[in-house]
Amino acid sequence: MAGIELVNVQKSYVVEKRNVQVLSGISLQVPEESITVILGKSGCGKTTLLRLVGELEQPDGGEIRYGAVHKTAFVFQEPRLMPWLNVTDNICFGLKKQALDSLEIQSIIYTVGLEGFERAYPFQLSGGMQQRVSIARALAYQPTFIMMDEPFAALDYFTREQMQRELLRVQKSQGASILFVTHSIDEALLLGHKIVIIEEGLIKAEFDLPKSEKLPNLLDEEFIEWKRNIIQNLNVHI
Amino acid sequence: MPALCLAVLFFLWHVICKMEIVSAYVLPSPKKVWESFWKMAVSGEAFWDMIISLGRVLKGFAIAFVLAFLLGMLRTMAPASGQFYEYLVQFFRNVPPLSLIPLLILWCGIGETTKTVIIVLASFFPMYLNIVKGFTDCDKKLLEVGDVFGYSRTKQFVKIMLPYASADILVGMRIGLGYSWRAIIGAEMVAASSGLGHMILFAQQMSRTDKVIVGILIIGFVGYVTDWVFGWMIKKLLKGSCKNGWN
Known about the structure:
The complex is a heterodimer.
Chain A: E1 4-15, E2 18-30, E3 35-39, H1 46-53, E4 61-66, E5 72-75, H2 87-91, H3 102-111, H4 127-140, E6 145-149, H5 157-174, E7 177-182, H6 185-191, E8 194-199, E9 202-208, H7 221-234
Helix pairs in contact in A: 3-4
Chain B: H1 2-18, H2 30-43, H3 45-77, H4 82-93, H5 101-108, H6 112-136, H7 140-148, H8 153-190, H9 196-205, H10 209-237
Helix pairs in contact in B: 2-10, 3-6, 3-8, 3-9, 5-6, 6-8, 7-8, 8-9, 8-10, 9-10
């Protein structure tokens, strides 16, 4: 089996003695070597789905089948940096000793635009810079499967675009599979090979997008049509 | 400013003695105290008493730290273990160590064991409570980062929990050191034939108020210096922290 397969996955939480069903039976195929984007409104269960795939939580029902052995990395909504480590040490946090040489680490630092901040501690960085360190930490691990939970939400427009390009480059060069959660339709269209819309704990629609060598132009007629479709499925009134 | 405050205190002390507001027997002049200190420093009397007290403090403090760390770690790694000894910890935490001196003298005599046990009892609890707090307060979100990278429990403890708790551990150690310094003086006053506590008590029995004041000043000075050194170490070790603590 290639990729990851979710079969009728369910998850609920008890909130103030009340059972809240977050995922009501998700069945999904996450293909290998491509970017699958989970799209939905806040509170629809996107993050829960990602945490279940990342084995940070166990589902109440259903099954998650993993294909080949994956080297996984997770970029959380918050940077989650170790406050006692500087930028370089945080980036190397998941690595075994000397897994990367200093040039490779420097190249990753350059990619995320943090040159000159190698020795800085997290409390000395802005929120966006911290998030870039968190992304660099995941990239340095050289994973074959990356889970990303709204990783670019804290970044400015230019950095976000740069990071999106970098993500596409890494995905292509390493052949990594990426499960990407966002609530931005444009970001989903820019990055996704497959877009899955979740609503109230269920998959409402799936779209398979054509693979492109470069960042797609969202002003193309084709993408405007995709966007219209997605907006209709999300029940967004504009 | 600190020097000015000190100068004012010494000046007031000098004026009170000069005007003979209180008897020289009760409050000897700063000059008399300085002369006594100088004699004790030249003869080595004060130095050896200080070294003996300091040695006892470090020995008891080290034992207390190892015990507090091991029990704190056990409480964190196996929370269910806490129910076996937590009530005992809370019980002894509320018993002043000095109240145990009579019992300890009956059991252990007036040798070194009694004093070591007193210091252990005095410094164990602040360290234990801070170590447990440091470990149990560890940010679960950071532990999840370890999970994602496939860290074992041991590696998670060493790489995440221990550094995270280090601010609390060091603060506990600093408080524990202060407590042990206080406790040793009390213990030496009751059951010792050497050390600063004994020196003060002996001077009081000989009606040498000047020597008593010299002893008090040495205790205060050594306590201040050890605390300053510890504070400096904390600052150096927590270099990545914001406002001296990341939790």
